[in-house]
Amino acid sequence: MMKLTPIALGLLAAVAGTGVQADELQFYGRIDYSITNSDSGSATHDGKSGTTMENNFTRVGIRGEVPINDQLAFFYRAEVGLNGDDQTKDTVSSRPTYAGLKHTTLGSIAFGRIDPVFKMTKGFADAFDNYSTKHDRLFAGDKRHGDSLEYRSSVFSGVQFGASLILEDDYYNDNDPRKDNGNYQLAVTYGDKKFRHSNLYLAAAYSDGVEDIEATRVVAHYKLDNWTFGTIMQQSELVNPNAAGYEGRDGFGYILSTTYKLGGWKLKAQYGEDDSGTGKIAGRVYGKHGDSIETAPTVSQWALGAEYFFSKQLRLHTEVGQFSVDDYSEFDDTVTSVGLRFDF
């Protein structure tokens, strides 16, 4: 029998106290763990080499919507990550938690810890998102932030606009130079990222200071029969004066991906490259060598993988990929992984 923690009991009691109907509240989650082998650890989630267990963002949460009138509704989401892959006592971590108002024609506005619009333009163009071969190993722009406001317009002829803003006075310390950045993002999307109503998804976004970068991103994803073809292209510049070598961390990155469905299988391949010095692997290079680096290292990647769907909820996934770091071969990494994912 499942035991409820005091936090869970309090959360359920709070929801019950609002008078929300059961059909307006959704409890959901995902369990996703992998056994991963890494040569150097430069590409893994926690930086560990050898054979390890990786937590691919296992989470549980609640979300719902409460109508206020015919045009206006209150919506909410409260989600936490569950960390069972190591010996840490921090078994719960922060994930999207926010509340907002949605109007049928004016769009929605939310506040809290939110996935910003720049990040979410990626759609599903990254065939290896959530795993150690994902695009953020090459270039930045895949984090969520607290102290955030987000606006999304209604969808007009397949087009939607979005904007995110960090409340910098709360987010940063008083003397942090990053407060001088704009700390906002703008985005526009076209089509359907899940290919339910359209076979084409396009997006463009701009970020000024959020996640310490000024960046422009373009995304395209296309479905043709059992095939999909995707790309994310990004020009990035680090704008954190406190970061090692920040004035030289400026450049271009991209990924190219394809998938093919064959019965219960989905086969995947991806290639990418970046010379901006803003991604996770480059960040680990700078973490070791600091300001001695004169030119941002170029990081390149290839990956192959497959998923087998036992059902809509349960899948087996496996990935193999290799990262090469110019002039810093100690950060080259070959990653192989096999895992299970269950959605509910």
From TrEMBL:
SUPFAM superfamilies: Porins
Molecular functions per Gene Ontology: porin activity
Signal sequence bounds: 1-22
Keyword Ion transport: yes
Keyword hit for Nucleus: no
Major localisation: membrane
Domain Porin: 9-327
Residue stretches in coiled coil: none
GO cellular component terms, semicolon-separated: cell outer membrane; pore complex
Subcellular location(s) of the protein: Cell outer membrane
Membrane topology: Multi-pass membrane protein
Gene3D superfamilies referenced in this protein's UniProt entry, alphabetically: Porin
GO biological process, any: monoatomic ion transmembrane transport
CDD domains in UniProt: gram_neg_porins (cd00342)
Keywords carried by this UniProt record: Cell outer membrane, Ion transport, Membrane, Porin, Signal, Transmembrane, Transmembrane beta strand, Transport
Subunit organization: Homotrimer.
Similarity comment: Belongs to the Gram-negative porin family.
Official protein name in the record: Porin
Protein's organism: Ferrimonas aestuarii
